[in-house]
Amino acid sequence: MENRVTRREFLEKIGRGGLGLYLSTLTVSLTSCTQAEKRTFSSFQEVYRSSSKNLSKNGLELLRYPYLQCPTTSSVKIAWKTKGSCKGEIRYGPTQDLEQMANGLSPTDSHLVTLPDLQPDTQYYYQIFGDGAPLTEMETFKTAKPCSSKSFSFIAFGDSGSGNSDQYRVAEVMKSLNFDLAILTGDIVYPNGDAEYYEPNYFRPYRDLIKKVPFFPSLGNHDLDSGNGKGYLDAFDVPANNPQNSKRYYAFRYAHALLIALDSNEKLLYKPDQIQGSPQYIWLVRELQKAENDPDIHWRFVFFHHPPYSGGYHGQGSQKEWLAQLRKTLIPVLEKYRVDMVFNGHDHHYERSYPIRDGSIADHQDAHTQGITYIVTGGGGRGNNFWRSRLKKGPWCAYMEDTFHVTHVEIDRGLLTLKAMNDRGEIIDKTTIQKSTI
After folding, report:
1. pLDDT, the chain, mean
2. Nearest CA to 93 among 123, 139, 125, 141?
3. Listed residue (241, 161, 165) closest to 193, CA to CA
4. What is the pLDDT of residue 370?
5. What average pLDDT does the segment 111-119 reach?
6. Smaller CB count within 10 Å for the chain: N or C?
7. Do both 86 and 215 map to the same domain?
8. 70 and 100 fall within a common domain
9. What is the pTM of this model?
10. CB within 8 A of 370, min separation 6: which ones?
11. 212 closest CA partner among 93, 101, 89, 125
């Protein structure tokens, strides 16, 4: 007999985020549901149905679906997890014949395999195997675009990892967008960064995205709450390309842009008299100096968790003075080396600043001196109604809205177009930056 529930019962269940495997057999009377509600239900149902089907012919179980890590123009890493140790294998190639193969070094349950000698900006097919038996269907990915490519796109979002229907709705909007990569502004999972929360609150909601598009994270305060970020560091293999060999901050190139992820939890970043002694800060200055002298880098983006400019609960309330210290310590070097845009989370709303330089709204006429645009994009899925009455528009603010959302950025040579979209797929904000020198 079908297990039928009413629309009200369905919405109550997804609001609590507790559907679980119950969805695999549930039939909902959806006649009065909106299209967005139907899509949310279908997304939940597909994820949980597939989670019970990941058994290979030899009995191996896939616990974590594959996801891309550290993509370059010539290589990519693919990670996944199995229940029990096995020899991991990826068969791949530019056609569905999958004529190439890469193996893990030894049997394990946490797999990370590198695919080398790839061509830039090229689609590849791949399939995961364990002890010779297939664990997934055939999937696809594209290698990174080279510096000669002048067009690419990315999404930005943060404060997302609740595992509830709000997060899934935003994920559905992401699926409707075309983008080459994603940057995450921290608080990847809630209530803290313990490893047990990564599967239900990150890997499941974004499974259909991260298997084909690379997601680049940054550390939020909740990600550090358990084991000083151990769950985060174990889950992600980001470039540890700094003198400390740390995965807490890093930089990477994509097309004609430089993107830098910072760990804004570091206390030295908030102390004007001590920041010069921060290894992260010293590294940041050197990376920006190199970019200044690199003719192939035309755009510079920095992302980290804590917002220097925010009209939200933290930015205008309990952490107002603390966050404002970043304007004295970190922001001057970002302005000096002409960073174009900074993306943050921490406050669970959307906000875009006017271009800011030296603490004031800058001249819009010259793109190279107009200052930095700051984006607070912390509406990835964690509850935001707590913050609604606490929003306060600062003098720097061009637009703000309390809503779940994702930010989409498109680059076409010297033109940047930014759109913020709510969890219904509606554009709530749009702006452009034009550079005449590219």
Report:
1. 87
2. 125
3. 161
4. 76
5. 97
6. N
7. no
8. yes
9. 0.88
10. 355, 357, 362, 363, 364, 433
11. 125
